[in-house]
Design goal:
The complex is a heterodimer of chains A (about 600) and B (about 290).
Chain A lengths: L3 H7 L16 H15 L5 H10 L2 E4 L2 E9 L5 E2 L1 H14 L3 E4 L5 E7 L3 H10 L16 E2 L14 H11 L14 E3 L13 E8 L2 E8 L11 E2 L4 E2 L3 H15 L10 H8 L1 H18 L2 H4 L36 H9 E3 L5 E6 L5 E3 H14 L5 E3 L5 E7 L3 H9 L15 E2 L13 H14 L13 E4 L13 E10 L2 E10 L11 E7 L3 H15 L6 H10 L9 H8 L36
Parallel strand pairs in A: 6-7, 7-8, 17-18, 18-19
Antiparallel strand pairs in A: 1-2, 2-5, 3-15, 4-5, 4-14, 8-9, 9-10, 9-11, 12-13, 13-16, 15-16, 19-20, 20-21
Chain B lengths: L1 H4 L3 H12 L5 H6 L4 E2 L1 H9 L4 E4 L3 H6 L6 E2 L2 H6 L3 H10 L8 E4 L5 H12 L5 E4 L3 H6 L25 E2 L1 H5 L5 E5 L3 H6 L6 E2 L15 H10 L7 E5 L6 H11 L5 E4 L2 H7 L19
Parallel strand pairs in B: 1-5, 2-3, 2-4, 4-5, 6-10, 7-8, 7-9, 9-10
Classes of the chains: A alpha+beta (about 600), B alpha/beta (about 290).
């Protein structure tokens, strides 16, 4: 094994200076929060008023236990610093359950925090420049940015500073403190990477005649009813970026549905109004914004203040395709090679790599956070990490000579699982582990799938590599199941005389600028999900044509164009009919229970707080 | 309040200064050192040979290396046949009389040290405190250690049981509107099961980076947030023998709370006797831990 000393001797390592404190948090908000909790506990603040306040500050009620909160910490643009990860480690030990959780929108969540301690968590966050402000509630939520922005060979320019400047402009901004409903903004790096079609505002960087701008999509979003966003115009110049975002938020604020909580996301407004009308109104509103916005307001959108990449290598290598670091030699594979194959990609900057750290459904312990912080500090030239919507970490600007040491250090704390960029890295929302709305334990199911698939070595099969599995514990799509190759959302079904946890399986969803929503195939009992997916892979392996990946084959099945015995959706249902069957309950009662539970399944939910 | 309750070098200097001005605070410094001892104060006390340092780790760890002058008294030895009479014999055997300050330390984030220090207080020793860091931290801070095995001449020590810091099952069960049970275990253990009505104050909450307990002001603020105040009777407990809850006991004392008791037999006894438990059944919170 290569020791650290050996590795550092092999090349001159540049450890970057720590970045300045990004100051997203505000000290005074911590004591105000503590005070409000006291007022609420002594009955001087009504439950409704307090809930609104609490959500505005990022504290979401825990499953059927309102004395506990999930504190959602915003990670603007997904960018997080080592010192912040270390703080999260301490906070998770002191006030949470000793672990932290990466969400599908790049937030990091601490679960089961006692309401009285939320202010203390906030205090710790402020110290390292983080905030939970407006991470929940009817506000502009965490502004996402592709974790490859800045290193993606296909991008026109780095959208990271734009995402952070937009995040800073709207944070605590009076214009978005009481929207009809939450509001999501996602930046991509290129047309392939990023969740731009499933956001209220999705932005893809592009250049036209040498000047910067964006393709902006409006009114997308996942949920009980999902919609794909619409393109506002062919090109929105950089100079109109802020005005466009302000105009859309103003439009939503004025016209959004404030009556029906189930229908008040902007996508419903766009759908009810019709895209063309909404588009016209948005463009008109933008003209008004541009004519009436004070210079002092505009100056709050400060791009240069968010740029901290000056010292990073600029030279690009030839060729412009993100590729795996090394082709896998399946005959003789070490753990390290297997990890490199599925967790490391080459950046556009010659000699630098982005390393993905595989988590289980986004979970990592305090100790893992600390070790990861050390790795990032020493081995990433940008001295920061990105959270990914696949609930993993991406550590960029890693020198090729350091990969082996990187792997060894991850292995020392059980973080060296392969498969981050493959079908094995299943996404799962928090489900019944902490969410009021959840019906099933999607979180545990995602972990079980990952465990089983890694055991079977599915991460080494390049034909599965571009497929994804995403699971939500209810129809509300926090697990983003509609954009998965194979997606699942939780429910409850009566099977025979017994209630059992089940998932509705969907096929053919995809992310990126040409993203599509998946289509419902059939219901699968929770304990049959793994075997069902394995059966699908088995059929695919027998029936696909040369060079066709699982994802392509699934798309063909949806179109009724597959060439084997399974030709279309009806065929796949037929082929899976046996595998989705549960044995009689008296023969195998466990198969009627949910993952992580040894008692009879009941679908128990309480009021969700998203819409409070 | 802190300055009075903490055995601290800074306070000592401060008191000297005050003494110079004739404030007459000298006695206060040694009279209430019953919580946490900082490293500089301990160093100075060791130099002056005016302290009994007690290493409560396993004996073989003591033999390998320990704080200069320290004597070995593993927690297991106290728990063997725990009775006030037996404990008085043990404290006499390490040469501690009523007036000699005792500082305990361990390598288990202060929990074992706290349990031993509490035991000494319980049998009537008024000056027992825990070291603010673990042995490993003491060493990494560059303070001296030694291998020499120390023993001290027997000293007489009276047995004066301090019931005011002790809670047994009957006390825990006795109804009182003013009493708050404090579960000192980590959050996941608490969520799994706990004594009904108990509040959770995990020992991890009361420590700060590099110290076994946070600053008193920080602990006070946490308690204030939770509405835990001076007029309540507080009883700490944990999973087995009162170690984690011993540490929380000291944390509460450090924050200036006076009416604090330790339920030393803790949840282990409670469960063994089949007493009622509260549990959260509607969530699979355990699955969130990244094992």
């Amino acid at each position: 094994m290569k020791t650290r000393k050996d590795a550092s001797r092999s090349h001159q390592r540049h450890v970057p200076k720590p970045r300045p404190n990004p100051r997203w948090g505000k000290e005074e908000e911590t004591s105000i929060f503590a005070e409000k909790v006291k007022l609420f506990r002594t009955g001087k603040l009504s439950e409704d008023e307090f809930r609104r306040f609490r959500l505005q500050h990022g504290a979401y009620g825990s499953r059927l236990q309102m004395d506990y909160s999930m504190v959602r910490i915003k990670v603007p643009g997904g960018e997080i610093l080592p010192i912040q990860l270390e703080k999260l480690a301490s906070l998770s030990e002191a006030f949470s359950i000793g672990s932290a959780h990466v969400s599908t929108r790049q937030n990091i969540q601490l679960h089961w925090v006692q309401l009285e301690d939320v202010s203390e968590v906030m205090r710790g966050l402020v110290e390292v420049g983080l905030t939970s402000r407006e991470a929940c509630g009817n506000t502009v939520r965490n502004v996402m940015c592709s974790h490859l922005a800045g290193v993606c060979p296909d991008e026109e320019f780095d959208s990271t500073p734009y995402s952070k400047a937009i995040a800073r402009f709207f944070l605590r901004n009076p214009m978005c403190q009481n929207l009809p409903r939450k509001f999501k903004i996602n930046f991509a790096c290129c047309e392939k990477h990023g969740l731009v079609r499933i956001a209220d505002i999705g932005l893809v960087p592009m250049t036209k005649d040498g000047s910067r701008g964006f393709r902006i999509y409006l009114g997308g979003g996942l949920g009980a009813a999902s919609f794909i966003g619409h393109l506002l115009e062919e090109f929105t110049s950089e100079g109109k970026l802020l005005a466009t975002c302000m105009a859309v938020i103003r439009l939503f604020d004025r016209n959004g549905n404030r009556e029906n909580m189930a229908r008040n996301r902007m996508r419903y407004l766009v759908n009810e109004m019709g895209w063309e009308k909404f588009q016209k109104m948005a463009l008109k509103e933008r003209s008004i914004v541009m004519m009436t916005t004070a210079h002092s307001t505009e100056s709050m959108f400060n791009l240069t203040a968010e740029e901290d990449d000056q010292y990073l290598p600029k030279e690009n290598r030839n060729g412009n395709k993100l590729r795996m670091y090394r082709e896998l030699d399946s005959s003789n594979t070490s753990a390290y090679e297997r990890w490199v194959h599925s967790n490391v990609i080459a950046q556009k900057q010659a000699g630098y790599y982005t390393v993905f750290v595989t988590l289980g459904a986004g979970d990592l312990t305090a100790n893992q956070l600390r070790v990861l912080a050390g790795i990032i500090h020493e081995l990433s030239m940008e001295g920061a990490a990105r959270t990914t919507p696949q609930q993993n970490f991406a550590i960029r600007y890693v020198n090729g000579n350091d990969l082996s040491e990187f792997h060894n250090r991850l292995a020392s704390v059980g973080l060296s699982n392969p498969g981050a960029l493959t079908i094995t890295s299943a996404v799962g929302c928090s489900g019944t582990t902490s969410c009021n709305l959840a019906i099933t334990n999607s979180h545990r199911l995602a972990k079980e799938i990952q465990y089983k698939f890694l055991e079977l070595g599915l991460d080494t099969d390049d034909m599965l590599i571009d497929s994804t599995i995403k699971i939500s514990g209810c129809p509300n799509s926090c697990g983003q199941h509609e954009i998965a190759t194979i997606g699942f959302f939780g429910g409850a079904s009566r099977i025979g005389s017994v209630m059992a946890p089940t998932y509705t399986m969907m096929f053919g969803g995809s992310a990126g600028e040409s993203g599509e929503l998946g289509r419902v195939i059939m219901r699968v009992p929770a304990k049959r999900v793994i075997d069902t997916v394995l059966k699908i892979i088995e059929i695919y392996r027998m029936e696909h044509v040369e060079g066709e990946t699982l994802r392509h084959w699934v798309d063909k099945v949806l179109k009724g164009e597959a060439i084997g015995t399974v030709h279309d959706i009806e065929d796949i249902k037929g082929a899976l009919a046996a595998v989705v069957q549960l044995p009689p309950v008296d023969q195998n009662p466990e198969s009627y229970q949910d993952y992580g539970s040894d008692t009879r399944f009941t679908a128990k939910t309480a009021r969700g707080e998203c819409a409070a | 309040m802190t300055s009075k309750r903490t055995l601290s070098m800074d306070n000592h200097k401060q008191n000297k200064k005050l003494r110079g001005r004739g404030s007459g605070l000298e006695s206060e410094y040694y009279s209430i050192p019953d919580t946490v001892c900082d490293v500089n104060t301990l160093s100075s006390l060791i130099r002056k040979k005016n302290v009994r340092v007690v290493d409560v780790r396993k004996e073989e760890e003591y033999i390998r290396e320990h704080i200069p002058g320290a004597v070995s008294l593993p927690l297991a030895k106290i728990l063997e046949k725990e009775s006030p009479e037996r404990c008085i014999e043990l404290i006499q055997d390490i040469g501690v009389n009523e007036d000699l300050p005792v500082v305990t330390y361990d390598d288990t984030f202060g929990a074992l040290a706290a349990r031993v220090a509490w035991t000494f207080q319980y049998i009537g020793h008024q000056h027992s405190s825990i070291l603010e860091v673990t042995f490993a931290q003491w060493k990494s801070m560059g303070f001296r250690t030694e291998k020499k095995l120390n023993s001290y001449k027997w000293q007489p020590h009276p047995l004066k049981i301090n019931q005011s810091i002790y809670a047994d099952l009957a006390y825990v069960e006795k109804a009182s509107s003013n009493k708050v049970l404090i579960d000192s275990r980590e959050r996941l253990n608490f969520l799994s099961e706990h004594i009904p009505e108990a509040v959770n104050l995990p020992y991890t909450m009361l420590r700060a980076d590099g110290k076994v307990l946070s600053k008193s002001d920080d602990i006070r603020r946490l308690l204030q947030n939770r509405g835990i105040h001076e007029n309540l009777e507080l009883v700490t407990y944990c999973g087995s023998v009162g170690t984690l809850s011993g540490l929380v006991y000291y944390g509460l004392r450090l924050a200036g709370l006076k009416n604090v008791r330790l339920y030393a037999r803790s949840f282990k006894e409670w469960k063994a006797l089949g007493k009622p438990k509260a549990e959260f059944k509607d969530a699979n919170y355990w699955d969130l831990s990244a094992e």
